[in-house]
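Q: Sequence in, structure out?
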Amino acid sequence: LHGAAFTSQIWKTLGTLQLVAAFGQLAIAIDLPGWGHSTNSRLTSEESRKNFLTLLFNELNITKPILITPSMSGVYSMPFIMEPQSETCKERINGLIALAPTATNVYSHAQFHRCDAKTYIVIGENDKNIGLFALANLKNMPNRKIFIMRNSSHACYKDQPTFWNEIIYHYNKEIIKRVDDSSHF
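A: Exactly. Output:
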């Protein structure tokens, strides 16, 4: 996903799509409805944004994706991840890389605590607004690591693309190790 100031192109420009693909994973970047090069109207309700991701993943035959969700895209990812059903987040996603997403204030610390998917929380050191609010909520996820990118703004991944891609590299290594370890009985 992408933030309001960018399009899906940011992940290609930074080399993130290529890095994920090098791990043998399907890497997809889309322009959210009403943003970037999308010809659709912006979705205004939480339900419509959650349904958009559900339909997108169904259409692409993707089950349990790993989501990268920066800034504004949180209004899409958070309702999808925090679906108010009895399932845990791990039953909806394989992982989450949260880059100061919006909409974390909608959910309680207890709701985040039930989200046990492998999570990396990444914020820029100089992001004193959305980043700090997101961190305060997302740190309640039990299976999380926190990364503060020094000398970086809200769009920390753009400020320091090399460090950003190192984070992606290590995340993928952990995911692959987890899959390999789970195959041993």
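The chain has a mean pLDDT of 87.
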